[in-house]
Every structure is written in structure tokens, then in C-alpha cells.
């Protein structure tokens, strides 16, 4: 069952929200409901409340050696292109 909720926001923000809702073919009510759902959705937790960075630092070092000049970004995009079947365009 849905309930009515009254909120107060700045007029210029409301105008922007109305425009956004129209462009995305949705209602302001749906936007607010989706936002609240995202806010209360349980966050995935790592052991002992660690952040992902703390967890990655706690892992043992990799046995794979990479050259100093290894271009991670380039290799990432090459792998993505290969996965999508675009490797011949590189």
C-alpha cells in the first residue's frame, strides 16, 4: 500500500527534477521512491568491516610479475575489445 509524503525543496531544484523526470519518462514519486530504496539497501560487507582497499592490501602479494612500464589501462581496453569481438579494430 502506498502512502502520501510531503517534502519541501528549493523551487529551482524542483524544476530540474521535473525536467529530468519528463526526459526519462518517469514520475518524481518514482524517482524519490527509487532513491530511498537505494539508501536503505544493505551494503555488501567484507570481513571485520574492512573497506575494499583494506581487504586488497591484506591479501598476500601476487606471484605474477609485471614489467614497470606495463600499461594497465591499455591492456584493460584491449581485453574489453577482445571480449566484445572488436580486437581487429585496435
From TrEMBL:
Highest taxon above the source species: Bacteria
One GO term (biological process): regulation of DNA-templated transcription
Alphabetized InterPro entries for the sequence: DUF6364, Ribbon_hlx_hlx
Name assigned to this protein: Uncharacterized protein
Amino acid at each position: 500500500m502506498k502512502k502520501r509524503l510531503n517534502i519541501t525543496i528549493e523551487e529551482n531544484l524542483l524544476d530540474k527534477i521535473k525536467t529530468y523526470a519528463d526526459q526519462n519518462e518517469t514520475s518524481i514519486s518514482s524517482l524519490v521512491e527509487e532513491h530511498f530504496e537505494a539508501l536503505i539497501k544493505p551494503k555488501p560487507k567484507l570481513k571485520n568491516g574492512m573497506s575494499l582497499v583494506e581487504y586488497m592490501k591484506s591479501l598476500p602479494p601476487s606471484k605474477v610479475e609485471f614489467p614497470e612500464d606495463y600499461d594497465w589501462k591499455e591492456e584493460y581496453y584491449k581485453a574489453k575489445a577482445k571480449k566484445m569481438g572488436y580486437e581487429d579494430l585496435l
